[in-house]
Design goal:
about 425 residues, 2 domains
Length: about 425
């Protein structure tokens, strides 16, 4: 977006910070320490030749997907989404976002329906007094973050004066550095008074609010987005974001568009879906606006180019042994250890585009969100928090940037079953690793 809605992101800093802390991501500490000078992001290990592979020839891996299957009336999957609750004074929106399945529920046909209603069953109070509308807003903070790939949603739009749906992303470090430094990527926004037009925008330091950089896409022949489903997407890579509707590209942005301001989009972001009512940009509903209004979402999906965003294979270290998931168990909290290399899936690690290291569908995680020497390593559901971020250095260290410490073999022993831990980087052999290249 472009207008005063920019300030809405700042309003979620406290909520996001709380959420991340509750999920072990500990917002407020992320980004405090930079990787060692010789370090580079996992995705940068790949050669330019690897990254030149054509889209047609390279398979895409689904790293996040919600097709909203489930019984009619049930709420969204709490393992993927959290509902935000409250009003939004910063943007002067009129709705109150409710919890649970009050305004966001599955329709039993593989779709999510976010419904805005002119009502106030809970005597909700908003910035302007007694709230006039209810609606829903949800995000993946603490559950999933994306960094690069294709981010898309297939949506049938709401419509009408004062109605404001959006599918967008915020930098996962917003709880630490605030907005707009965190960055914001608006995949799709629509104001109901423009039924045939959507907007795609980026916001960051020096180009937020009305100075956001973006473009609009308008359907041909007077078609309206509320008449059927359309796929809204960004294709995102280092220093480049491209927007499309139904496969039709309508803008690409790179650092050259920023006039010297910082490009803040080469890092993890979480996803947001919401249906706002009123606000500075769309204006308030009027007598022509019909309620309830519905935003129907068929799917949300994030895919990555498996040929250019990571490699999968064993990670070998001390004594030529492998980083291993104990007992090949994918249960949360399973220890990560050193063990004889055996080629099993418990030793196949993917260096993700989002900075994570993954095996058995879960992430290499620092127990208890620790940053101190001796913090043990485990397998855990991926949420993209700072305790799941890793950088492979040119010196073959595997570093957690937040702690600025290394993946380490406890007690410098290569015995099978030796637990891996976090430790101050020393350059010793028990901190040297051969990761997939």
């Amino acid at each position: 977006m472009k207008r005063a809605r920019r300030v809405v992101a700042a309003a979620v800093v406290l909520a996001v910070s709380w959420t991340l802390q509750q999920n072990g991501a500990s917002a407020g500490t992320a980004g405090e320490s930079a990787p060692p000078a010789a370090s580079r992001p996992l995705t940068e290990q790949l050669s330019s030749a690897d990254q030149a592979t054509s889209d047609d020839a390279v398979p895409m891996a689904v790293v996040f997907e919600d097709t909203f299957d489930g019984p009619a009336g049930s709420g969204v999957d709490g393992g993927k989404w959290q509902l935000e609750v409250g009003d939004n004074v910063n943007n002067h929106e009129r709705q109150y976002y409710t919890p649970g399945n009050n305004n966001a529920k599955l329709n039993g046909q593989g779709q999510l329906v976010i419904e805005a209603r002119r009502e106030n069953p809970g005597d909700y109070q908003c910035w302007y007094g007694r709230c006039e509308y209810t609606s829903a807003r949800m995000n993946t903070a603490g559950r999933f973050t994306a960094q690069y790939g294709r981010v898309e949603a297939r949506i049938k739009m709401s419509q009408g004066q004062g109605v404001w749906p959006a599918f967008w992303m915020l930098g996962n470090d917003i709880g630490d550095i605030g907005w707009p430094a965190s960055g914001e990527i608006d995949v799709m926004e629509n104001i109901g008074s423009e039924p045939s037009t959507v907007h795609g925008t980026i916001h960051g330091p020096g180009y937020s609010g009305a100075e956001g950089i973006g473009a609009a896409y308008t359907l041909p022949n007077g078609q309206r987005f509320a008449d059927g489903f359309h796929t809204f997407a960004v294709d995102w890579s280092p220093d480049r974001i491209t927007w499309s509707v139904d496969g039709n590209t309508y803008q690409t942005r790179t650092p050259t568009d920023l006039g010297g301001d910082a490009w803040v989009f080469n890092k993890p972001f979480f996803l947001i879906l919401n249906l706002a009512i009123g606000g500075y940009w769309p204006g308030d509903p009027d007598g022509s606006t019909q309620f309830p209004q519905q935003l129907t979402v068929d799917h949300v999906r994030v895919t990555t180019d498996t040929g250019s965003v990571g490699r999968t294979g064993p990670i070998t270290g001390l004594g030529g042994k492998c980083v291993d998931v104990a007992g090949a168990s994918s249960a949360n909290g399973t220890p990560v250890q050193l063990y004889d290399c055996n080629g099993t899936s418990a030793q196949q690690w993917t260096l993700g585009s989002d900075g994570t290291v993954r095996a058995l569908g879960k992430c290499l995680d620092i127990t208890g969100d620790g940053v101190t020497d001796g913090s043990a390593l485990q397998l855990w559901d991926c949420h993209g928090g700072p305790n799941q971020q890793w950088v492979v250095s040119a010196a073959n260290d595997i570093v957690n940037p937040r702690a600025d410490k290394c993946l380490d073999v406890r007690d410098n022993t290569s015995a099978n079953g030796t637990r891996l831990q976090l430790w101050t980087c020393t350059g010793a052999a028990n901190q040297k690793w051969n990761a997939p290249r």
